[in-house]
């Protein structure tokens, strides 16, 4: 790593609980200001890494790459670069990987990516591109000293034949060189632990970081769950819905639910937590303050 910087896998293997945040690239100047406000506020928590997503179909590639480069250059935080196969030829992927390397970005999240019509839509690869995240892992490992993360799905990928088949895919990515995994958002700790058990039973030892999205607005979280293919359990909906039209109470209950989930995951041996922030810092900072278990920082 440049300048002796540690990789995500280094930090996890050293016994530290990883604590990280995910952002999406801004659409305009106001969004850019909001993003950097959140980044600076969360920088004070000394996260293990931060990541910036690609839009569906790779639609935000240039902004994603630019913001990732800026985090590497202008902050004390370690960026995890996102890279998806959707809409990209092999040559384009090699070019993006090279630009990340030139910026000193060596932690990369390798994703197949969702079609523009959503995760359940048929995936159509670029004519000169890759079909699977597994191939992207192999490409990254062939092109340099990259620490590679991949996606994991506690409830199974929407296109997976079964939970066991989905676990086999994750195990194959690990055998191809993936160093760690980050899960899709989920709301039941048991779903996470069962995934970890399925992968372990396949003889693969890969850190799987749980992805957390606090509920601060029920309609919004329903939409995010729908887009990701995740289930929104009835017991979660009931706890949040009982507060009716009181937005502050709904938000408070959502923060409590997320804190309980995080504490259960850390106590059960999860290697850390990855927060889907929606470019806001307050909810994440509140959960961080409420946690019983120590995390990075």
Strand order of the largest sheet: 1-2-3-4-5-6-7-8
Number of strands: 8
What structural class results from the helix and strand content?
alpha/beta
**Helix-strand string:** HEHEHEHEHEHEHEHHHEH
Strand content: 5-15%
* Helical coverage, percent range: 40-55%
Under the CATH scheme, which architecture would be assigned?
A: Alpha-Beta Barrel
Q: Main sheet? A: 8 strands, parallel, barrel
The overall pLDDT average reads 88
Q: Which stretches of 5+ consecutive residues score pLDDT under 50?
A: none
The total number of structural domains is 1
Helices, by number, come to 11
Q: Based on Cα principal axes, name the global outline.
A: globular
CATH class: Alpha Beta
CATH-derived topology: TIM Barrel
Radius of gyration: 18 Å
Q: Whole-Å distance between the termini?
A: 21 Å
